[in-house]
Amino acid sequence: MDAPLRRTWAEVDLGAVRHNFRLVRNRLHTDCLCMAVVKADAYGHGAVPVARALLSEGADWLGVSNITEAVELREHGITAPILILSYTPPAEARRLADYHLTQAVLDEPYAVKLEREAAAADVTVSAHIKLDTGMSRVGFFCGQDSPVDAIARVCAFEHLSVNGIFTHFAVADEPDGEAYTRQQFALFMNTVDALRERGITFALRHCCNSAATLRFPEMQLDMVRAGIVLYGVSPIVQADLRPTMALRTVISQQKTVPAGTGVGYGLTAHTDRPTVLATLPIGYADGLIRLAAETHRVSVGGTTAPLVGRVCMDQCVIDVTDLPSVNTDTVVTVFGDDTVSVLDYAAACRTIPYESFCLVGKRVPRVYSDSLR
Ligand SMILES: *Cc1c(COP(=O)(O)O)cnc(C)c1O
Questions:
Q1: What stretch of H or E contains 227?
Q2: Residue 1 carries which DSSP code?
Q3: CATH class of 31-231
Q4: Which of 114, 117, 119 lies closest to 103 in space, CA to CA?
Q5: If we measure between CA atoms, which residue out of 146, 224, 219, 230 comes closest to residue 184?
Q6: Helices (H), 262-315
Q7: Residue 265 annotated to the active site
Q8: Could you identify which of 36, 302, 321, 355 might form a hypothetical disulfide with 59, taking C-beta atoms 3.0 to 4.6 angstroms apart as the criterion?
Q9: What are the tens digits of pLDDT across the range 128-154?
């Protein structure tokens, strides 16, 4: 491969990903499997290299959001079990089977369509039942009317092979989320118990995301689904995680302007002193969101510098007046080094690290290293 363009790039440390995986696995009960969630291109890190790194560490399953993501992994030779966590059009039944994918079954009408398509294609689709225990998103709704009858009917479908059941927590990562999470867990277990009384059992019962895995180990059951923790962000529980991505760019131009100079589209900023401005070749099309301009400070040579004026599509401007020595080509880190974390960046953008990672644009090359090797 050609050397990546030194314009704007994302450094991904696969060693940090592996370190974070080990930390999670050390907190699992014996016999508890670990699904590494690599949806959304492994939270922007690159699904194939991240999945390979995690499988080399012993990840048992991979979790993705849709069939396109799953097929990408298969086409790169990844044979580990893959669960598609959300919707796949039932018409894809044949491809689900051909690629040996496991599909989340969202409710009975969905299962009926999937069964019909699987029968028409003369295939059997592997499936996990999804329960909605309080997130009100996808899943058999566990409300006043028990979903047990509906699930029992689905489990009898000839062309679905149901071997797992799962749910997803809404507030496992919120400081005051314990009571609600315990309620969701109880609802999950009650439903699984009621199904067992009907003679229906599941090899894999799983409900923990990263936060619940670390915070409520008693809820780990047969498998956990770890996402954000693998990418170095600790949800609520303190853990010795390593950052996995640094978003970097360089200074493309530097100039000194007098006090009172307007900067950028809309001239929303004016210098209040003679100012050294540095332009960076990164904009919102690279994932640097416009809100960042309000309070975010990028990292340059061990200190920080504020953004000035609006973020453009492909560029932005920072104030380097107070920085001792910067030049064109000096590397600037938007987030992900010891000075500015992805948490700092996400907070400045009034969002969460998940979104900060996912928004790193597709034109930003991912550059891989491995600090454990
Ligand atoms: C994204 C996702 C996860 C992983 O969540 P994290 O908070 O990143 O650990 C687990 N389960 C489901 C169903 C998901 O969609």
A1: none
A2: -
A3: alpha beta
A4: 114
A5: 219
A6: 292-295
A7: yes
A8: 36
A9: 999 999 999 999 999 888 999 999 999
Query: What residues does each domain of the chain span?
Result: 31-231, 245-369
Ligand 1 atom with minimal separation from the 35 CA: 10
Q: How far is the CA of 209 from the centre of ligand 1 (A)?
A: 5
Contact present, 277 and 263 (Cβ < 8 Å): yes
Rounded Cα distance, 236 and 274, in Å:
43
For 164-209, what is each residue's pLDDT tens digit?
A: 999 999 999 999 999 999 999 999 999 999 999 999 999 999 999 9
Beta carbons of 34 and 55 less than 8 angstroms apart: no
> Which residues are near ligand 1 (CB < 6 Å)?
37, 39, 85, 168, 209-210, 225-228
Which residue blocks in the chain are alpha helix, DSSP H? 14-26, 39-43, 47-56, 67-75, 93-98, 108-121, 148-155, 178-197, 210-215, 292-295, 342-348, 353-358
Q: What token pair was written down for 365?
A: 């090359």
Taking Cα atoms as reference points, which of 7, 10, 5, 3 lies closest to residue 251? 7
Model pTM above 0.85: yes
Superfamily of domain 245-369: Lyase, Ornithine Decarboxylase; Chain A, domain 1 (2.40.37.10)
Q: Locate the ligand 1 atom nearest the alpha carbon of residue 130 and give its number.
A: 13
